[in-house]
Design a protein that fits this description.
By secondary structure, this protein is α+β, with helices and mostly antiparallel strands. It is built from 13 helices and eleven strands. Helix 2 (38-56) runs parallel beside helix 13 (326-364) and helix 4 (102-117) crosses helix 6. The chain starts with a helix and ends with a helix.
């Protein structure tokens, strides 16, 4: 789920812009009276959707990224929200009289055209979505305006080094990577070969055996020997339960929490239960690597600057009068879905035809 949200956000974060022309009942939203037309919303969807299809395939749209939410739905929501945010930015840029020279717009547009022309498939899809040069040039012009607005705010909200140092000191955990070296003995609750849970009575026996082996460990019996004899983890059992060094994100939470709370030489005081089964854990070593302030201060500064920028935009958004026409939005999104389904069907039919032709050719040979 988080993965796909990040994928969407990473592409949508590229500035999406639009002109304010609209026809009364054909408006998806308005910002301080400036209307966003359904046509422009659809063109913006058509401008950015090909990148996903070419990277992940046409089936990406039906992929569920949250419970009951498809990639298509999330994509369309993010596009509209970003369009609204950008209109807010453009309106404030106009008040500040921030403009971009025409020659800069032309140069950027020429580079964009070269890039599109070099990608035949991408160019064909854009044309099929009604994306022409006039639309693209308008996007470039306003994109550059938003970038200039961003750079202006960054200059006005410069982050001082004492702010950076304060953040570093108060969030030192973010710059510290901890690892432990541990071994474990696993008494599995699952049949890993069949990928299914064991019967309850068998799980109860596993837990009982885990308790007995834990007593053996506490009574001084060799941990590695017991792991080789009893552990259900085939990967580590042959090595005496050795898992090597790992960080907090490597193991499931219950296991990591237990291991990182222990000191070198400690054995877990009780059985640690996870979705995989019952574990006896022994920690052999712990090490921490703290990144130096000089190595991370630029990244912190950039992050704090962007936080200030977001704070300004959030303030503008709270003051803005934003209205959405849910009926028109719904219609636009239904049409987008229908178009993707038709495209996927044509692709499938085309693939089927090619496969048939290839079979016929092989038969003739």
């Amino acid at each position: 789920m988080k993965k796909w949200n990040k994928v969407i956000a990473s592409v949508v974060s590229a500035t999406l812009l639009f002109s304010g022309c609209s026809v009364g009942g054909n408006t998806v939203a308005s910002v301080n009276g400036q209307k966003i037309s359904k046509d422009l919303y659809e063109k913006t969807l058509g401008l950015y959707s090909p990148s996903y299809e070419m990277q992940f395939g046409p089936d990406i749209w039906n992929t569920e990224i949250e419970s009951g939410v498809t990639f298509s739905q999330k994509f369309q929501e993010e596009i509209l929200e970003k369009m609204i945010d950008d209109e807010i930015i453009l309106q404030d840029a106009a008040k500040k009289e921030l403009t971009v020279p025409e020659e800069e717009v032309n140069a950027e547009f020429d580079e964009l055209k070269k890039s599109i022309d070099s990608q035949g498939q991408f160019k064909t899809i854009l044309e099929g979505n009604g994306i022409d040069d006039e639309f693209l040039k308008e996007q470039v012009k306003k994109d550059l305006t938003v970038k200039k607005y961003y750079n202006t705010l960054m200059t006005e909200n410069e982050v001082k080094e004492d702010e950076v140092r304060k953040y570093y000191d108060e969030h030192i955990d973010e710059f510290t990577s901890s690892q432990v070296k541990a071994s474990h003995i696993l008494f599995a609750k699952k049949d890993f070969d069949k990928n299914e849970d064991l019967p309850k009575e068998e799980v109860a026996k596993k837990k009982e055996l885990a308790e007995k082996v834990l007593e053996m460990v506490k009574n001084g019996q060799n941990f590695a020997d017991l792991a080789m004899k009893y552990s259900d983890d085939p990967g580590s059992a042959k090595n005496g339960g050795d898992l090597g060094y790992f960080d907090k994100s490597t193991m499931v939470k219950e296991f990591s929490d237990a291991a990182f709370s222990m000191k070198p030489g400690d054995v877990s005081s009780g059985i640690v239960e996870t979705e995989f089964g019952f574990h006896i854990i022994k920690v052999f070593d712990k090490k921490e690597n703290v990144q130096k302030f000089e190595d991370v201060k630029q990244a912190i500064s950039s992050n704090l600057q962007y936080q200030k920028y977001e704070s300004v935009i959030d303030g503008l958004k709270k003051e803005a009068k934003i209205k959405k026409n849910e009926d028109v939005i719904k219609k636009a999104r239904e049409e987008f879905v229908k178009k993707q389904e038709e495209k996927a069907k044509k692709t499938e039919e085309s693939s089927g035809t090619e496969a048939t032709e290839q079979t016929d050719n092989n038969t003739k040979k």
